[in-house]
Amino acid sequence: xxxxxxxxxxxxxxxxxxxxxxxxxxxxxxxxxxxxxxxLIMLLGLSAVLLGVKQYRDQLGGGVIRFLPALGVGLAIxxxxxxxxxxxxxxxxxxxxxxxxxxxxxATLEARRAxxxxxEAYRRLEAELREMARQYQSPLFRLPMTFAEIFPVGLVVAxxxxxxxxxxxxxxxxxRA
Length: 177
Prior knowledge:
- This protein has about 180 residues and is mainly alpha-helical.
- The protein has helices spanning about 1-25, 35-45, 45-60, 65-95, 100-115, 120-135, 140-165.
């Protein structure tokens, strides 16, 4: 089981990280990306959860699995993928001298100014963003926050995968002839 979890978790992480890097390369180093594209990439990568649970069901369960064991395998795969995502994000931050949050704050303030936000509302937003940037400097704040970006998506995929794959007729195991 551990082998299946690690392999599928790393495959999911590789797909997600590659997709995110591709969007950064194509879209530039703009801190505001298309959020939906990011989640679509996460869903694509986390499809490895479904494949991993299916492999576990077919190889170790004889083509049958109950919901909770399937959910456990799916969550473990999602956790490995999420940890890979966090590790690569930390490497990216280190390589860019942790400039992301400053760029994010500047781009957000510029966008709000362009929308016409000014006066007290602008100062309040600026203070909130500066406080968030200060907190983001701490790994104890940043690491769980980064993990929380992706793991809920993995949780949903794991629940759906467990629900679908507990039915042995859904993507049935191939007989070895």
